[in-house]
Specification:
Elements lengths: L1 H27 L6 H19 L9 H15 L2 H13 L5 H28 L4
Helix pairs in contact: 1-2, 1-3, 2-3, 2-4, 4-5
Length: about 130
């Protein structure tokens, strides 16, 4: 129960941070409205990489702190950081090598873009009621 609470609180913080960064960056760079998304994706990827790069054996970051920060805050801030971490983990797997990471990354991008396109097309093409 405590773990779920840590993730929920962290997720709320991450979502609010994402919203604030998006507003701030949009006002600072109106010609590039998606700059906030880029910033949270890069920052989130760095933070998750740092947190996951600290060896669990050293107890530098406790399990509770990892749940709060990685799953909660970074999950609320950006899911891209999870995608990048999973891609690197798959690429480093001794049995699969880089090909598994590459397939995972390409599949997420292709199917993600396809799903956005399909959802928008269905929403646009559905009959009016």
């Amino acid at each position: 129960m405590l773990n779920c609470l840590l993730v929920a609180i962290g997720g709320a913080i991450g979502a609010v941070l994402r919203y604030q960064v998006a507003l701030t960056m949009k006002s600072m760079t109106p010609a590039y409205a998606a700059s906030g998304t880029l910033l949270v994706n890069v920052v989130g990827s760095f933070v998750i990489g740092y947190c996951l790069g600290t060896a669990p054996e050293t107890k530098t970051i406790s399990e509770s702190a990892r749940l709060f920060l990685i799953v909660g805050v970074m999950g609320g801030l950006t899911t891209f950081s999870s995608l990048t971490h999973e891609t690197v983990s798959l690429a480093r797997h001794p049995d699969a090598g880089y090909s598994a990471g590459l397939v995972h990354l390409v599949a997420n991008i292709v199917f993600g873009l396809g799903a956005v396109w399909l959802g928008a097309w269905i929403a646009h093409e559905r009959p009016s009621t």
